[in-house]
Design goal:
The complex is a heterodimer of chains A (109) and B (586). Chain A is of the alpha+beta class. Chain A has four helices and four strands, in the order αβαβαββα. The longest helix of chain A has 17 residues. Helix content of chain B is 42%, strand content 24%. Chain B contains 17 helices and 25 strands. Classes of the chains: A alpha+beta (109), B alpha/beta (586). Strand 4 of chain A pairs parallel with strand 6 of chain B, so a sheet runs across the interface.
Chain lengths: 109, 586
């Protein structure tokens, strides 16, 4: 069911027009990198996904057991939970172009 | 497997060690890996890195009460469980009991987009969480190099790895990090740069189509260690590293004696057979009865109520049993009763180390008092001469330390009974029997010598070795001016001897009879002489009487005549009377 949905969405421009974007940002404490990443993410979402997104920030120092579920190694990591497929973007999201490519909001050249 | 773990003879007490529990590895490292520090295990594909790491954890959890975390970058939890289950480790149960925590880290480069600065804090958090969850003392990272494939920024990665190892040290866990071996460095990505306390290299080499794994401790900071390359193998119960001189020469020697199963052979060995726990070499050309002798030796042990283990490298158990039936030796009942066990394997089946480990295990499980290797020389196929010698040395060490008597048969080629390899190995042996063919008169006969038997008086003679449907018998060989005679020649010679003896007996009787006859003849002669003498004596007596009578008569006549003549012839007659007997005597 899920895969079929995913395929269909992929066909109509890879879910760019999905209703809800669920994004999860993994951080470990309030480090400068984490704060930068959150700031960058917020900016990108406001610009491209206005009113269509939800950001969940998970601090692994508080919930270390959650690192396993999304196979988190690098911090910070942004995971696109919805729309499928799951995508991972690591780093402080300072390279906006690559974030957009990574989130599939812009096709890679 | 447990007994080796505590056998650390190294004086390196300064550095705390973490015993691996892996057979032999703790001996080489003098007690184990450096406690609280990371150890790098590197090697090519299929060397057993993952297995070594897994065994380190499992044994730590089972034997030393140290829980462990296995962080795998390659295999999933289910795969890991399956892989080590082959070695008899129940990983699933250890995981359930929270002794071991498996964590599969999955990295897929295609799913990851890099967008700026990052670090690997997620990995640290995750590892930290896993360690704290079960109170782990041991950590395995297998293999970190997957990170290089998954994460594009090597500069960040290297900095993070350096931090990781420092972090592991601070955490106080004993870690094993595996890595692929590289061309220029020990590892493909130069991990040895970060892990510098202990480096172990594994290697899998093929020599003459037989693969042997080797282990070498390249570096062990702050501790002496065995520097050689040690063969190791992966058996049914994990990894065994086999140091060549695993045991000192300090086994106790029993003075109890055990029978060889052949009465006359016992007699040749001071009447009581071999010492218990001694190693015996039996060399012989093909078809001289080595296997038969070995089978009798094994059966004798079974008869005494002990257990015998028979390693056959050329024949199957049923073939040996069938063949032994033909010489009146029934082995099946002993096998059924469980006092005799055969273990047949082709020498080329696996490498020498595997053979040795298999034997160790068989010996450990069966607990025999007698072990037979038939024929030892077959093992030369599986390794070089020096390797075979080293292997036999270790086997003998193992057997002697457990007071197990061992018989090794060794095939030699006709005309060259003291082959090089036997000489090399014979010095390890306490007793050496030699079976030989003697050819002559259109037949072959077997002869047995005791070449040496340490610590006991033994016969220096060769015996003819007879194999019949009743079993083995030893017969004094004929040693005469014509050399040693056996078989029909011996029989012919003894017949000849018998005939000669008979002839000389008859000759003696004949001479006795002749002498008797001579004596009788002489006696007869003596009797005749005596009778002749007696006759003469009688005649003489008679003659004397006659003379006296005659004299008396003559005197009477003279007297009468004188009286008649009345002449004074008294003087004259007396004179004549004196004269006459003189003539008579003459």
């Amino acid at each position: 069911m899920k895969t079929r949905t995913a395929r269909r969405r992929k066909s109509d421009s890879s879910g760019r027009s999905a209703k809800l974007w669920q994004l999860r940002l993994y951080v470990a404490g309030q480090t400068p990198k984490s704060l930068t990443a959150f700031g960058n993410l917020k900016q990108i979402c406001e610009n491209h996904l206005k009113d269509r997104y939800r950001i969940e920030v998970i601090d692994l120092l508080e919930q270390p057991h959650l690192s396993k579920g999304d196979q988190i190694l690098a911090i910070p990591t942004l995971v696109r939970k919805l729309p499928p497929p799951v995508r991972k973007i690591i780093g402080d999201l300072s390279d906006t172009e690559r974030v957009l490519v990574g989130l599939d909001l812009r096709p890679a050249e | 497997m447990k007994n080796n773990g505590s056998k650390s003879t190294s004086p390196a007490a300064c550095l705390p060690k973490c015993p691996t529990g892996i057979r032999g590895l703790d001996e080489i490292t003098g007690g184990g890996l450096p406690r609280g520090r990371p150890t790098l295990v590197c090697g090519g594909a299929g060397c057993g890195k993952t297995l070594l790491a897994a065994e380190f954890l499992v044994r730590g959890a089972m034997q030393f009460g140290e829980p462990g975390v296995f962080m795998s970058f390659e295999e999933t939890e289910a795969e890991l469980k399956g892989n080590v289950a082959l070695l008899g480790f129940d990983l699933a149960s250890l995981v359930r009991r929270k002794k071991i925590l498996l964590d599969h880290v999955y990295i897929e480069r295609s799913e990851i987009q890099e967008t700026g600065e990052y670090d690997l804090e997620g990995l640290f958090v995750r590892l930290n969480h896993a360690i704290d969850a079960i109170g782990a003392k041991r950590v395995v990272l297998d293999t970190l190099e997957a990170l290089f494939a998954g994460l594009p920024n090597e500069a960040i990665l290297r900095a993070e790895l350096r931090r990781l190892f420092r972090w592991l040290k601070n955490k106080g866990v004993t870690a094993v990090i595996s890595a692929e071996s590289g061309r220029e460095h020990l590892t493909r990505h130069g991990l040895e740069e970060y892990v510098s306390d202990c480096v172990i290299v594994l290697d899998h080499r093929i020599n003459e189509q037989i693969a042997t794994r080797h282990l070498r401790v390249v570096k062990y900071r702050g501790s002496p260690h065995g520097t050689n390359e040690y063969p190791f193998l992966i058996g049914d119960d994990g990894i065994s590293v086999l140091p060549i001189t695993s045991l000192g020469l300090n086994h106790t020697a029993s003075s109890a004696r055990i029978s060889t199963g052949i009465k006359r052979l016992d007699a040749m060995l001071g009447g009581q057979g071999f010492f218990r726990g001694s190693s015996i070499l039996l060399t012989g050309t093909p078809g001289t009865g080595k296997t038969s002798t070995a089978a009798f030796f094994a059966q004798a042990a079974a008869r005494r109520g002990e257990r015998a283990l028979y390693f056959a490298f050329e024949e199957s158990p049923s073939q040996i049993m069938r063949n032994m039936r033909s010489i009146g030796l029934r082995l099946e009942p002993w096998v059924k009763r469980g006092s005799l066990r055969f273990h047949s394997a082709r020498p080329t089946l696996y490498c020498l180390e595997m053979h040795l480990a298999t034997m160790y295990r068989e010996i450990e499980t069966f607990q025999p008092s007698v072990v037979v290797l038939d024929p030892m020389t077959s093992l030369l196929v599986a390794g070089s001469e020096s390797e075979t010698k080293a292997m036999v040395t270790r086997l003998i060490d193992c057997l002697k330390s457990q007071q197990i008597s061992s018989l090794f048969t060794s095939l030699t080629h006709a005309g060259n009974p003291l082959h090089q390899s036997e000489i090399a190995i014979s010095s390890l042996m306490d007793a050496w029997l030699l079976l030989q063919d003697i050819e002559g008169n259109g037949e072959r006969n077997r002869v047995l010598y005791v070449l040496k038997a340490r610590g006991m008086s033994h016969s220096n003679q060769s015996r003819e070795f007879l194999i019949s449907h009743r079993g083995i018998d030893l017969v004094d060989a004929y040693v005469g001016p014509g050399g040693v005679l056996t078989g029909a020649a011996r029989a012919a010679q003894s017949a000849r001897d018998k005939a000669e003896a008979l002839a000389s007996q008859q000759e003696a009787a004949r001479r006795r009879r002749e002498l008797e006859r001579k004596r009788a003849a002489l006696e007869r002669q003596i009797a005749a002489l005596r009778s002749e003498y007696e006759a003469e004596e009688e005649e003489l007596r008679r003659l004397g009487e006659q003379v006296a009578t005659r004299t008396r008569v003559v005197t009477a006549e003279r007297t009468e005549l004188a009286r008649l003549r009345q002449a004074d012839a008294a003087v004259a007659s007396r004179a004549r009377y004196d004269h006459k007997p003189k003539d008579k005597k003459r």
